[in-house]
User: Fold this.
Amino acid sequence: MEDTIAAIVTSSAISSVGIIRISGEKTFEIIEKIFKPKKGSFKIEHQKIRYGHIIDDKEIIDEVLVSFFIKPISFTRENVCEINCHGGTVILNKILSIVLKNGARLAEPGEFTKRAFLNGRIDLTQAEAVVDIINSKTEKSLKESQKQLEGVLSKKIKEIENEILDIISDIEANIDYPEYDVEEVSNQKLTNSIESIREKLQKLEKSFDAGKILREGISIAIIGKPNVGKSSILNMLLREERAIVTDIAGTTRDTIEEYINIKGIPVKIIDTAGIRKSENIVEKIGIEKSIDISKTAEIVLVAFDYSEDFTQDDYDIIKNVNNNNIIIILNKIDLKNKLKKEEIKQIFDNKVIVEISAKENIGLEKLEKEIYEMCNLDSIINENETLLTNSRHKNIVSTALNKIDDINLDVSKKTPIDIVSVKIMDLLQLLGEITGKTVSEEVINKIFSKFCLGK
Ligand code: GDP
Assistant:
């Protein structure tokens, strides 16, 4: 018999209500010992909430609500009770310790969800979606995780698995009953079926880019010579004063990282120190960092001061920008303009130019729109009803695609069908790892170790 487990499932911050969840065979037995209903006698009724007190050695500990879930209709498919009590750390821990004293053990991180998986209520992609939902940075990424929790990805994988099973059964019929008149799996038919599977997997693999953007966000570097307004642009995007803005050139020496939400995309903005020639050691580090970051960031905002002529510093920056995803910002449009836009257009080969005033908060919407469009999210999302958001899934799909190339090679070389068949079986086995059908215990443990306590 599995242990009965318990944990505080609400956050550790002080709040008005806290919840302790208990799951396992002994759940109701424990609750009966420690809970006294206000009215009537103790009764276990599915999906009912009872009001009463937690009692320890006849002492009233807290006023609580207890909800009952009789297996298999519960989060874990086991008997479950949830105690809603007051939300302080001391009281929650006190009640938890009473629960533990009466026969439960403390749940490991992710153990409730792991039981839901092991007991077949959810598959692995759905369990992983639980973590993603908790970690979602924006509503858009939350929506993708919710779709995964509903089993959208599992359904897609199942479709592909069924196609593979069709191929396998065709081949088996051929191998097992060669004397019967079963249609021979002609190379052409086999090739077509494999191609259809390959296309589906490739589409999924491609969707990972969009999924990753939603889950992990993108990073943006703002570069430009000192005083063009980089910190002000950052502040405008953050919609609050966080980075330090000064009049003295070269004061933003360290890099600052903040997450913002641009139309549902989590964006990490890196404000870099100004790039310019300098003997000053601190500033030199900043310059090197700026150049590095402009190479690694997904999008680089290159800022110029619209109210000043180009200087050598500007040209040096232009030389150093080494990224295809560039948005040019002409800042300070509230001042008289001196910079020649045509020249910039030529230098940057018609890259997107956005004119703004960080000081007067003009042009923010246009800038956000250009950033969003550069991520190319809509086209990928429209094309794919299912997005891969998890790198474990992505790696499996990529490995599966390699296996398919290998199978195709075999087919073209007219390798004996029973050998090809073994490889196709491997492919099926591999895809099963996504939903958890064929996954090893080690992988399962690794996945659930990422969960937080109480999930
Ligand atoms: P950084 O060195 O590139 O980070 O530049 P800052 O953001 O610190 O700005 C330098 C100076 O330019 C500050 O005095 C800002 O107030 C000013 N500034 C920034 N953006 C604008 C703008 O759009 N218009 C005007 N007039 N001044 C600006």
Notes: The chain is about 50% helix and 15% strand. The two ends are 21 Å apart (CA to CA).
